[in-house]
Amino acid sequence: MFGKMMGLSWSTDAVGTASACLGIRTELPQHAGDTGRSLPGQRWGIRFFKEGDVMRSGYDRKRRKARWLPIVLIVLGVLAALVLLAVGMFYHYYGLSNYEGKAAQTQLSSEDMAAAKKAAEAHVGKLNLSDSEVEQIKTENDKAIKAANVSVVDQPDVYNLLLVGVDRRDDSWNGNADSMILASINKTKKRITLMSFMRDLYADIPGYGVHKLNAACAYGGCSLLVKTLEENYKVHIDNYAWVDFQSMADVIDALGGVDLTITDAEVKVANDYITELCSITGADPQSEYLQGGGDLHCDGIQAVAFGRIRYVGNADFQRTERQRIVMEQMISKMKDLSLGDMNSFATTVLPLIHHDISVSEVLTLTAAAPTFLKYEVRESRVPFDDHYQSMQEILNPDMDYTLPEIQKELYG
């Protein structure tokens, strides 16, 4: 306005330059039709400002906001899509597995128990002990368990997962628990303890009386096995997961096999188990037989056969050691899986696994898995050396020593 009065023509750039030199801020009218009367200073929006202030008109701010808003919305949309994709992928993978749920751990009805007992006894058989001998063992162990004064410990920094290998040829019964390994993850100590419970261990199975420990699975599945271990050996078990031998072979194959050191004596017995496994799976045993001992790369059938050997070395004691060796090799292979390999592994393996791990628990474990895989891995076995008696078919541990020692190894 002053320029027109003086016969001058100022451009907005000139005004901005002059304003910058004078240390004032100018805000020009935003529209051609904006001719509302005002004082000169108000008309031009002149105000003093401090050195370092950013000179930006309200129009510029609105333009920048309008320009960035679609980009922000796109980014948020992409992030939301990724989250939904991750959740969808997780539920996809989780849905591939066989969730048995906590309902499977509820008390069976008397009719169900009778049916399970009848089916199990056709495979389990009876103990080679008299009723009086069984009663005496039970009475002595009950006293020892009470004297040990050990209770089931549920520590928040320790997660106990019972891994069970089930021996059965068909689905007409639950199968015996041929392999029982408690994978105990101690987050405070940063270690994983693989503790084997031998299948011939003493067990007073709730509702069924004294048997070998592996019979608990035959009578009531893994839920009854969990309850039996907690009541007899005072070990808290958060969850279980089980596979049969055929499925275990497939799991190992999905990892690309494992490296094992096998003696010539073990090879001979392993080949017998290979013949049995191939008769179930339909595989050609000739292509599976081990040709001799040494450091061997074994596929699933060969590794499972190795883990089942019990007639070489220290019988079932060394057998559980072989099972832990195979498990350690599997953990080692899992550490090296790429993202693509992990996807393929999960797609193949999850349909083979039965478990009672909830969605929330799986999410927690999945998030922590990279950390867990860095932990030290230890081995253990129940019964402990020199602290058990062999009574016909049953390994009867010294409960007053065994129960505190289990707590020490898992939590100490």
Characterization of the model:
This protein is α+β, with helices and mostly antiparallel strands. Among the domains are: 2-55, no CATH class; 97-255 and 337-411, Aminopeptidase (3-Layer(aba) Sandwich). The chain is built from 14 helices and 15 strands. Helix 8 packs across helix 10 (300-308) and helix 9 crosses helix 10 (300-308). The longest helix has 39 residues, at 58-96. The chain is globular. The termini are far apart.
Q: Could you list the spans in which at least 5 consecutive residues all have pLDDT below 50?
A: 1-49
> Could you give the order of strands across the largest sheet?
3-12-9-4-5-6-13
Radius of gyration of CA atoms, rounded to a whole number = 35 Å
Percentage beta strand: 15-25%
What is the helix tally? Answer: 14
Q: What CATH first level of the domain at 97-255 and 337-411 would be assigned? A: Alpha Beta
Q: Which helices and strands occur, and which strands form pairs?
A:
Elements: H1 2-5, H2 12-22, E1 24-25, H3 40-44, E2 47-48, H4 58-96, E3 98-99, H5 110-124, H6 131-148, E4 158-167, E5 176-186, E6 191-197, E7 202-205, E8 209-212, H7 215-233, E9 239-244, H8 245-254, E10 258-262, H9 264-281, E11 294-298, H10 300-308, H11 315-335, H12 339-349, E12 354-355, H13 359-372, E13 376-382, E14 388-391, E15 394-397, H14 399-411
Parallel strand pairs: 3-12, 4-9, 6-13
Antiparallel strand pairs: 1-2, 4-5, 5-6, 7-8, 9-12, 10-11, 14-15
Helix pairs in contact: 5-7, 6-14, 8-10, 8-12, 9-10, 10-11
